[in-house]
Design a protein that fits this description.
160 residues; 3 strands; 3-stranded antiparallel sheet; mainly alpha; elongated
Length: 160
């Protein structure tokens, strides 16, 4: 499986890599993936399990955002019906993604707000069977809330 080893400096990280590689190959008969194995500073950041981790932020990585949008696109085509079943399907995807990425240590509030707007725009376009236009804004947030649409921001932990 995946794991991260954190060290104080590059020298320690290189020594740790040698030790980990040796232990995995000799004791557990496993090999490290060369594509996934690298040494980086925390300020440079690195991607791990769908997150982009840096010294000052922990957000969804771009690939995770695109995967989320792809799932929503598949079920919100303008040729499909806009009904309660659709809202249920969208909520299922929203709930799963938000529960995974809305952690106390993450900084996804802005990303979630952006994705919420994007979902509502997709649903407006679907309802009116046309691309985004200013008159599609007739359906406000209140309308989607009444239909039962979940907001990703609602899953974000509130500050204590």
């Amino acid at each position: 499986d995946d794991f991260v080893v954190m060290c104080n400096n590059r020298t320690q990280a290189e020594e740790a890599l040698i030790l980990v590689r040796s232990h995995l190959e000799n004791e557990l008969k496993l090999k490290l993936s060369p594509e996934k194995t690298h040494i980086a500073t925390f300020s440079e950041g690195f991607e791990f399990l769908g997150f982009k981790l840096r010294s000052n932020s922990r957000t969804m990585r771009e690939k995770s955002v695109e995967n989320f949008k792809t799932k929503i696109r598949e079920i919100t085509k303008r040729s499909l019906n806009f009904d309660d079943d659709l809202i249920t399907q969208v909520n299922r995807i929203v709930r799963g993604t938000a529960n995974y990425f809305a952690t106390a240590f993450s900084h996804n509030r802005y990303v979630f707000r952006r994705l919420d707007r994007w979902i509502r725009m997709r649903l407006r376009c679907m309802k009116f069977k046309r691309k985004w236009k200013t008159d599609n804004w007739r359906f406000r947030l209140k309308y989607f809330r009444r239909m039962g649409l979940l907001s990703m921001q609602d899953f974000y932990p509130q500050p204590a």
